[in-house]
Amino acid sequence: MPREFELCPGRRVGGEQPCFIIAEIGQNHQGDLDIARRMIRMAKECGADCAKFQKSELEHKFNKKALERPYTSKHSWGKTYGEHKRHLEFSHDQYRELKKYAEEIGIFFTASGMDEMAVEFLHELDVPFFKVGSGDTNNFPYLEKTAKKGRPMVISSGMQSMNTMHQVYQIVKPINPNFCFLQCTSAYPLQPEDVNLRVISAYQSAFPDIPIGYSGHETGIAISVAAVAMGAKVVERHVTLDKTWKGSDHQASLEPNELAELVKAIRTVEKAMGSPIKQLLPCEMACNEKLGKSVVAKVTIPEGTILTLDMLTVKVGEPKGFPPEAIFDLVGQKVKRHIEEDETITEQAVENHVKKVKC
């Protein structure tokens, strides 16, 4: 199994650990601190492990022209892209308030550092781990500096190639071994045919010593649950209080009832994964007693007869006798008492029978 590591204090990921579920609030809080608190509580009440935001230091993430360009989208919170982003960006003090609130109600808190200065702030804020958004996964100087902080890292892979992900691995691994990759496709909302869950298996083969997870932007929960069945050890989904709100991420986000159902479904699937050992289970005994078949005499068999296959058949019998898989082993054996037609063949009726051990 992939190695496991402590992602948050007392919470490990990878190996046989339960899937770590991140509720990505992002900027779906509409720039409102009260809504942000409500969303943190919602994530906690729905059973998520972590509430996550997106932190930018805008002058370090965007150049001046990018901030000054007109932004006329129906999702805009300002006349320019800079005004729009400033409306959605919480201050350092507001982040401290939100982290304190998350700690008070008992849910882990972190954010994607959307630029190097944001990472510096989040490091000062003492978040348990850094989330690297897909837009920075091929930003190798950023990756190096973030890895050197020594905190665990969760790295999304939207818009990247396998070659790039190998480079990311080679950069981060020698500096900081505590990281994982998330399969991700950067489209909102994401269509099923563009999800490519098989990349999870490809990552598991290419990077067998780190956990692999999934960051989804699709609608509904089925695909994310399937990712867990394929071995995803971290799942991240955007969340919202209302999909109809202004903002480009809301449509690809889960409302509270959906997030709760996702968490429940993931925990159910984890139980269902069970053991790779195939055997008769205690829960099957009642069915086996009622419907399990036995070897039965097809004809009357006198005492001393050497059994042949044409003397035997398989039926649900009373009492239980030899199981069907023993029928070939019985051929050539001698019976030590008279057996009536349609009677169950029991061990007591066969001379010196020795069960063959299955390998």
Automatic annotation (TrEMBL):
Write out the GO MF terms.
Answer: N-acylneuraminate-9-phosphate synthase activity
For whether the record's keyword set contains Transferase, the answer is: yes
Entries under CDD domains matching the protein = SAF_NeuB_like
Which EC number applies? Answer: 2.5.1.57
* Catalytic function, reaction form: aldehydo-N-acetyl-D-mannosamine 6-phosphate + phosphoenolpyruvate + H2O = N-acetylneuraminate 9-phosphate + phosphate
List keywords of the entry alphabetically.
Transferase
AFP-like domain: which residues? Answer: 294-353
Annotated InterPro entries: AFP_Neu5c_C_sf, Aldolase_TIM, Antifreeze_III, PseI-like, PseI/NeuA/B-like_N, SAF, SAF_AFP_Neu5Ac, SAF_PseI/NeuA/NeuB
Q: Where are the transmembrane segments?
A: none
Q: What is this protein called?
A: N-acetylneuraminate-9-phosphate synthase
